[in-house]
Amino acid sequence: MTNPPNEVVLDHVSKSFGTTTVLRELDLHLRAGELVAVLGPSGCGKTTALRILAGFERPTSGRVLVDGRDITDLPANKRDIGMVFQAYSLFPHLSVAANVEYGLRIRGTGAAERSRRGQELLEMCGLGALSSRYPHELSGGQQQRVALARALAVQPKVLLLDEPLSALDAIVRRQIRDEIRRLQQQLGITTMFVTHDQEEAMSIADRVAVVNHGSIEQIAAPREIYHRPRTQFVASFVGTISEIGVSPSCGSGRLEVHHPGPGRDTLYVRPEDLRLQPEATGTHVVVAHTFIGERTLVRASGDEDRPDIVSSVSTAEAGSVLVGTRVTPYLAAEPALRIASTSSTPDVMAV
Amino acid sequence: MTIAPSSPPDLQDPAATGGATSSRASVRAALRSPAMITSAPLLLVITLFFLVPIVGMAIVAFTVEGPDGTDGFGLDHFTGLSSRSRAIVNSLLVSFVGSTIAAVVGALAAFCIAQLRHRWLDSVVAVFSSVLANDGGAPLAFAFIVTLGNTGFVFEALGLGAIGFSLYSWQGLVVMYQYFLIPTMIMVTLPTFVGLRREWSEANTALGGGRLTYWLRVGLPIARPALLSGWVLLFGAAFATYASAAVLIGSGAFPLIPLTIASELRSGASSAGEGAAMALGLTMVFVAIIVLLVFNRLQRRAARWIR
Q1: Nearest to A300 by CA among A279, A269, A321
Q2: Do the domain assignments include residue B18?
Q3: Both B66 and B187 in a single domain?
Q4: For the residues A182-206, what does the mean pLDDT come to?
Q5: In this structure, is residue B6 part of a structural domain?
Q6: Which of A130, A251, A259, B86: CA 20 to 30 A from B218?
Q7: Do residues B44 and B136 share a domain?
């Protein structure tokens, strides 16, 4: 069961509800067969963009194209778009099998074919033995698997996932996330995955689109989003980062850290690019350790004029910078983003 | 090896005596549990005002006078109900027609209110429905007499006499019952219609279904337990209505079970009349219990789907 891959384009899409503008001239291009995670804080417009693509909302202006065909005015039930919701979207009065076969049934597919494809999808999602159960007899993770199977059963051109893991606990979330990715790659279906969870977005997507205030700040591969953010918002929204002010002449090596301000360049430095050297005359004092397995995040606090900074050290070496140790920060690699002091808008120097 | 003589287990077997002691102890513990203590007032009320009267009714209903003048057990009062079959048929007719009309109208009203998705309106409707659903008795009958009675102003304004309508008939009873049955139906079904999730509708749409498909295959099937339970409840309410029916049509013209019970009890202290009244009363209790069991079962299913 494969789907011909389809390109999806949101072309200059704007959406207003009354006087509130939710999307501003949003441009988003999903290449055929790729999974794009749309990441952003609550209220940034990411779900509205997904609902416009699904046909549940009409854009105030702009176009929606699937494989070059303008579907802006096409009703939602004619778009051939599969959708998985946040939770509780299974029909409670139907069994698992009947839920999965629902789309095929209303398309008039014969009973035998319906049953065959339904079972095939359930097997793919690891739910073959649960076909006669009802939604209230399933766990949250199983329900989302059924919802995924139901969305895929009609062989949609595009798959939309609206925060499908947010109601699940951490372990199940990871399992289902991996399963979604496996199925998406196996079927080669163009997929838009909306989430506010950066770890989820970075781990599942071919590309991540970071949305803020109704427009895309950056769309790129997860690694690029992390190491080469294009804007201040992307830098601070994705991952842990230290925002520090330095003199414009400051290069790599020892850092004279200040709060960002006039006459200073602002550096956005990832923890792994910042090294803390224990020194009796150091500008910062280690205040906390956060154990994250092989690495440990070390937070150091400065005085009134110096912001807190975060460094990542191997857990084995964390003993050299115990809480209370006075340290001096060193820049071990290029910062993720540098905004020059003269620029009124972000001046991307590190890209 | 010495074999000990066998002895009665309840005397010698420590496990047996221990078991009996522990079961007595667990009963004592259960009686002293907070749950039992807090539910004691309710149990007392149920015993005094439900169980004792039912047992009393059953004793009278099953007591018959033998040929020698002594009392004994018998089903004569129940078999004698065939002579009052008109009351039973009338009660079933009025309850069925009245509850069916109210179920349809009430469900449609609840559906329309739910579509507006207005929390303030939902609250207002809930308050009004619960007030109107419990509004009945003699005041309701008088209100209908002055509006739809033979000289009522609505009766005259609409010229209802010309089409043969009479409030003092079974059709009149059905009309009057709508006053409290429709709000009851709205009250029972509105939470279900409000609880239909947007995700279900959108999932149906994404899978290629239209509005009609949604209602036929998703919306109505999910609402069905609540609709059926509402209808069953209305049937029970109409079946048991007494005061308003008594004021409107009295006891002679159109006998109903509650009116017949009252009439039998009023007709004197004859044991046959009292026995028949108690037999009818027990029949009504039986119907009420069935109605409540069906209602609860359907409501549980509706709640599980809608929560």
Answers
A1: A321
A2: no
A3: no
A4: 93
A5: no
A6: A130
A7: no
Q: What is the mean predicted confidence (pLDDT) over A297-322?
A: 89
Q: Which domain holds residue B267?
A: 89-303
Residue with tokens 């749950």: B35
Using the Cβ of B300 and the Cβ atoms of chain A, whether some distance falls under 8 Å is answered with: no
- Higher pLDDT: A82 or B34? It is A82
Closest CB to A85 among B203, B208, B221: B203
Dihedral over alpha carbons B280, B281, B282, B284 (to 10 degrees): 90
Beta-bridged to residue A38, according to DSSP, are A194, A209
If we measure between CA atoms, which residue out of A313, A318, A345, A316 comes closest to residue A330?
A313
Q: Distance (Å) from the C-alpha of residue A159 to the closest C-alpha of chain B? A: 10
Task: Give yes or no: residues B133 and B242 share one domain.
Answer: yes
For A248, A267, B63, the CA distances from A283, given in Å and listed in that order, are: 19, 17, 100
Regarding whether B262 and B154 lie in a shared domain, the answer is yes
Interface test with B, best of A53, A58, A81, A91 (most B CBs within 10 A): A91
| Within-domain flag for B33 | no
B207 touches chain A (CB under 8 A): yes
Q: Kindly state the tokens that stand for A11.
A: 């072309």
ipTM comes to 0.86
pTM comes to 0.79
What's the gap in Å between the CA of B294 and the closest CA on chain A? 19
Q: How far apart are CA B92 and CA A243, in angstroms?
A: 79
Q: Is B121 in the same domain as B48?
A: no
Asked if B228 reaches chain A (Cβ–Cβ under 8 Å), the answer is no
A349 vs A230: CA distance, rounded Å? 9
Please give, rounded to a whole number of angstroms, the shortest distance from the CA of A117 to a CA of chain B.
15
CB contact under 8 A, B203 and A150: yes
Hey, what's the torsion of the CAs at B253, B257, B259, B263, to 10 degrees? 100
Task: Note whether B181 and B99 are same-domain residues.
Answer: yes
pLDDT in tens, A9-42: 999 999 999 999 999 999 999 999 999 999 999 9
B222 Cα to chain A: minimum distance (Å) = 6
Q: Which residues of chain A make contact with B221, given a CB cutoff of 8 A? A: 93
Do residue B252 and residue B126 come from a single domain? yes
